[in-house]
Amino acid sequence: MINKAVLIGRLGKDPEIRYTTDGSMVTNFSIATDESWKDKNGDKQQKTEWHRIVVFGKLAEICGNYLVKGKLVFVEGRIQTRSWEDKDGVKRFTTEIVANDMKMLDSKGKEAAPETMGDGQGPDGDVPF
User: Fold this and answer.
1) 55 is in which domain, residue-wise?
2) Measuring CA to CA, which residue among 15, 7, 8 is closest to residue 62?
3) R_g of the chain, CA atoms, integer Å
4) What is the CATH number for 50?
């Protein structure tokens, strides 16, 4: 059986760093992927999906130190669904990607323009992926 997710998208905000009880670093961030198409009337349509990413160990340190909002990244990992009870006793669920590989795709020194976040367009109007 295979459980593998491969995504290319932009960070929606700076990563959040926390530590487990044994002192291991865990980094969480979300990335947006976009899909665009023309509807039957020829009008451009677009849909953005948000993906929760969780990273452990050395890769968590790298993500925590180098990723910032707007950065274009490649993420590979497995899909995981967790459940917990909130303070009111209601069972909650979340689905996330547990990353085992990450590559920064923006060229060095180049930050994504804030206005490109979520619209699927690069600074020059091209789709970045």
Assistant:
1) 5-37+44-110
2) 15
3) 16
4) 2.40.50.140
